[in-house]
């Protein structure tokens, strides 16, 4: 049987220069009574290290780079625990795999059905919609769980773009 870790990886830059966005997340975990474990930190660092819309496979690969000893079961359990703590969440782009995101970045996502671009918009811009749903229907609308689909400015301006009638 091979030992758990036979590779010695160079210390990654993200450990040498902790991301300033990490501290408020760590504070939130602690204030919720959660522990700041190595696996939790590796996942948060992984999410903050690259493009912030990561599939679970991409995220796991990033975590492997900094913490190769975090096993798959631990990775999934830890990701779920972080979501319960409200510091990460997942969202869906169309029918693709879920995308993982750190919470507290105050943006939501628009997706252009014609060219496939993603546009980040301020979460407060969707507040009137959430407020109207709450007022009229008593419904607490989760606007971030799915991207909002439509046409970007460029595609909406093209006469040939299919607007769905
Ligand atoms: Zn985003
Ligand atoms: Zn979901
Ligand atoms: Zn477009």
Structure notes:
This protein has 165 residues and is α+β, with helices and mostly antiparallel strands. The chain has helices at 13-16, 22-31, 38-49, 56-66, 72-84, 127-137, 153-157, and strands at residues 54-55, 88-92, 98-102, 107-112, 118-122, 148-150. The strands form two sheets. The chain has a three-stranded antiparallel β-sheet with strand order 1-3-2. Strands 5-4-6 form a three-stranded mixed β-sheet, with no helix packed on it. A hairpin with a 5-residue loop joins β2 and β3. α3 (38-49) crosses α4 (56-66). Bound molecules: zinc ion (3 copies).
| β-strand number | 6
State the helicity in percent bands. Answer: 40-55%
Number of helices: 7
Report the biggest beta sheet as strand number plus sense, adding barrel if it closes.
3 strands, antiparallel
Low-confidence stretches: 1-15
Instruction: Give the CA-based shape.
Output: globular
CATH fold-type name of the largest domain = Arc Repressor Mutant, subunit A
Order of helices and strands: HHHEHHEEEEHEH
Question: What labels would you give this structure?
Answer:
disordered N terminus, globular, 165 residues, Dna Ligase, domain 1, 3-stranded antiparallel β-sheet, alpha+beta, binds zinc ion
Summarize the structure.
The protein is an alpha+beta fold and 165 residues long. It has helices at residues 13-16, 22-31, 38-49, 56-66, 72-84, 127-137, 153-157; strands spanning 54-55, 88-92, 98-102, 107-112, 118-122, 148-150. It has two domains: 11-102, Orthogonal Bundle (Arc Repressor Mutant, subunit A), CATH 1.10.10.10; 107-157, Ferric-uptake regulator, C-terminal dimerisarion domain (Dna Ligase, domain 1).
